[in-house]
Design goal:
4-stranded antiparallel β-sheet, Rossmann fold, 15 strands, 14 helices, 3 domains, Four Helix Bundle (Hemerythrin (Met), subunit A), 4-stranded parallel β-sheet, 15% strand, zinc, alpha/beta
Length: 480
Amino acid sequence: MTLKVYNSLTNEKEEFKPLEEKTVKMYVCGQTVYDYMHVGHARTYVAFDIVRRYLEFLGYSVETVINITDVNKKINDRAREEDESPWNIAKRFAEINLEDFDDLGIEADAYPKASDYISEMIDLVGKLMSKDLAYEAEGDVFFDVRKFGKYGELSNQDLEDIRPERTDEITSSEKKKNPEDFALWKSQEESEFSPTWKSPWGEGVPGWHIECSTMSLSLLGEQFDIHGGGSDLVFPHHENEIAQTEGATGKKWVNYWMHSGLVQMGEEKMSKSQQNFVSVRELLEEHDPQALRLMIAETHYRNPMKYSDEKIEKAEKTLKSLKNAVRNLKAEINSFEESIPSKMREKDIEFLEQVFNLKKEFLEAMDDDFNTPKALRNLHELSKLAHSYLEENPKRPVLSRALTTILDLGGILGILEEKEKRQLKRGSLMENLMEEILKLRERYRKKGEYEAADSIRNALEEARITIEDTERGPRWKSAE
């Protein structure tokens, strides 16, 4: 089966064919850095990180760009509230959000800041003016929507039906030729909390939409494969991006538009403006980052996702179950002495066939527009299957194949990983600590100091960690 991707521009699943045979270029709209990242934001970035991981699994080299919007009125407003420089506000939250990315295993090749591309933005606005697609009005520059015939295609709207107040932050400007025109450059006087830049049209700031067009053009070129973001960005942001970028280049800009569904708390969209959100930083104080990734993967990326404390708790238990299965497989493999080749039994062959089929079904699910809920079910089945095989006097090469498959598939979803950069927080640190504790307990037992050994077991049980003594040595399991 070949990979099919749902294209928001055509509203159809299409066979994925990158512009370059071995390379995929992807741009994902990043945050405005005036506050903490919440689960709604994380949902988008985890979804597209899974896209990146699967494309890399398929053998593509993926160039991923996630921008940082550090020029915005929201940042200025926060700076004014806290009596602090807007640059300090932006720097602080950009760093915090990148730390959250790191915890969640989200990776990109570049995180460009809007403030580093102001001169390129001014050049792009100038190019649109030279093509008579934009006009200046008393220091502001607007895009003339009626001169771009494809406007409304992405959001599936006729120009006459578009409500002007939705196209732009400047909704009542009498300077506009048409009410639906949107700002490329906005005149503004510099103040302590509002940085500005010089331009041919006077002092001011770039419009929000021109920022992403400029950064993607600068880093990925005039044409690339995937542009992603939340579904709330389809209009006006992505619609306006298409108009100004294709207007400037005269070329089809993006091949596949992909949009993730929004996160809901109850029946409302999770949002800062409604004050109904859970920050990633707050969530990760109590939960494994991979539990959040798993919870996100349980819903198809295009569908709305409901968040609740119960859902993250359930995801945490599911993750622990998967990790315990991996741990048991590793322990069993490590318990074998140097393996002596032996003939494969019928039940070994049957087990490997089942492993192969579940892997095949997992990949088929991912090929179907990144169907992570179905893929995750296949991973669960594989984990259960491997656990059952442990009771069948298993063979080391067969177990190793099953373990490698589970880790490979888990890695596509960004779970069951043991990356060095995340060792200092949870998984690997816990693994290493438990290994040392069990070694200490074994030393006590061998010396006949059973009271000391039992005190270790009792202390672990209080921490909801159980020890099972087997013929091949002790195993530990965290309570589900």
